Amino acid sequence: MNISRRMMMAAIGAGLMVGAMASTAAAQTVESIKSAGTVKIGMLVDFPPFGIMNTANEPDGYDADVAKLLGKEWGVKVQIVPVTGPNRIPYLQSNQVDLLVASLGITEERAKSVDFSQPYAGISIGVFGASDAKVSKPEDLSGKTIGVARASTQDTAVTKIAPKDAKIQRFDDDASAVQALLSGQVELIGVSNVVAAQIEKAAPGHFEQKLQLSQQVQGIAVRKGSTELLAAVNAFIDKVKADGELNDIHQKWLDAPLPDFVATAKK
After folding, report:
1. Which residues fall within 8 angstroms of residue 32, CB to CB, at 6 or more apart?
2. N vs C: which end of the chain shows fewer Cβ within 10 Å?
3. Fold of the domain built from segment(s) 27-123+217-263
């Protein structure tokens, strides 16, 4: 094979590869989903209460209920495809799922790879303590003992704002930090609103949020350029926020109303 022919074949091969990649990342539409009769939704199943496997070994949780409600709205069957944190975006980009309802926090970096809906859920990180504890600003943590899960988001957030004389006690997980709070081993803990709901359930009225440290909202993700599909997803979220269905799901799984920073958020 001469050099010109090799170059021509290489060019054809490169063209085929580019075409395949473009096809892999093809934009999705509601009509194509309705024509198929099924919407394939990627979801974490190891992130309670957003994603779990129930006693019947079926995907369940907050995200599953949102996914099922979306399928009902569009009049299609819902096929929940279990994904992991690392592979959820690749699953979407490779057409293995139509969209993600997978507790995916909306970030600028991720928005380079997917298009996000308006928020449908969110997690806030705060400092919680006894209802009568006099803590309303970071300076009030002076001299206090604060429990956190080691190397967690809340560990980072609390460490950043705590005075030098505050004692940060690190535990292997949130459950251990919560137990330390309930037993009086620590005065305060840094946790998410998800864990805070569990504390309220275990000891109603005894503890409350003292400081809010950070918030992260989660969006439904679609493939880049899926403008029509994204508009339909946003219309769905608007509807279930307005009619209270999303709030009902939040109450069911987190024992608390949909947070204002999610309820009032727009894209």
Report:
1. none
2. N
3. D-Maltodextrin-Binding Protein; domain 2 (3.40.190)
Residue whose C-alpha is closest to residue 217's, from 255, 260, 251: 260
* Rounded Cα–Cα distance for residues 171 and 152 (Å): 10
The phi, psi pair for 78, rounded to 5°, reads -110, 125
Contact 43, 102 (CB under 8 A): yes
The reply to whether the predicted model has a pTM over 0.90 is no
Fold of domain 124-215: D-Maltodextrin-Binding Protein; domain 2 (3.40.190)
Average pLDDT of the chain to the nearest whole number: 90
CA–CA separation, 231 vs 228, rounded Å? 5
Q: Over 235-265, what HEC string results?
A: HHHHHHHHCCHHHHHHHHHHCCCCCHHHHCC
